[in-house]
């Protein structure tokens, strides 16, 4: 069944986004690549979150390959949009810079959920 690797991919990519945002929000503003590399060395815990995010992306890709092997692309790709919902909820819950709840955004999130359900529902056989 392809839904399990697809959901794993969604969860991992969502974790990756949140971990990288957490790490990058804690680093000082870097002017160039040299500054960024120095910041990585000077802030190992934050660099660890950044690396965890990158690892999440890599693992997500492996799960995604399995999902693509087992699911029609239209269904697999629709499931990917669930990541938007998870990341939005995490950003609000964790209080990332300026992230606030709004009913307008909630309406958009609910429309994504309805869209995923419509795409992934079994269709009637003819």
What does this structure look like?
The protein is mainly alpha-helical and 126 residues long. It contains six helices and no strands. It has one domain. Helices cover 79% and strands 0% of the residues.
Compile the SSE list and pairings.
Elements: H1 3-26, H2 33-42, H3 44-70, H4 73-80, H5 82-94, H6 103-120
Helix pairs in contact: 1-3, 1-5, 4-6
Quickly describe the structure.
This protein has 126 residues and is mainly α. Helix content is 79%, strand content 0%. The chain is flat.
Q: What's the number of domains?
A: 1
Query: Percent helix among the residues?
Result: over 70%
Q: Radius of gyration in whole Å, from Cα?
A: 18 Å
Q: Please provide the ordered H/E string of secondary-structure elements.
A: HHHHHH
Q: β content, as a range?
A: under 5%
> What average pLDDT do the residues reach?
90
With helices defined by DSSP (H or I, 4 residues minimum), what is the helix count?
6
Alpha-carbon distance between the termini? 23 Å
Bulk shape: flat
Going by helix content, strand content and strand pairing, the class is mainly alpha
- Low-confidence region ranges: none
- Main β-sheet, in a few words? none
Number of strand segments: 0
């Amino acid at each position: 069944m392809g839904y399990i690797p697809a959901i794993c991919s969604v969860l991992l990519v969502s974790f990756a986004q949140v971990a990288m945002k957490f790490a990058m929000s804690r680093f000082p503003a870097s002017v160039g690549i040299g500054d960024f590399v120095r910041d990585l060395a000077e802030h190992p815990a934050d660099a660890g979150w950044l690396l965890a995010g990158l690892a999440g992306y890599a693992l997500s890709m492996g799960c995604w390959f399995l999902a693509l092997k087992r699911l029609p692309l239209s269904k697999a790709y629709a499931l990917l949009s669930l990541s938007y919902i998870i990341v939005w909820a995490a950003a609000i819950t964790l209080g990332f810079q300026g992230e606030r709840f709004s009913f307008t955004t909630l309406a958009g999130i609910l429309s994504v959920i309805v869209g995923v359900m419509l795409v992934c529902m079994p269709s009637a056989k003819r």
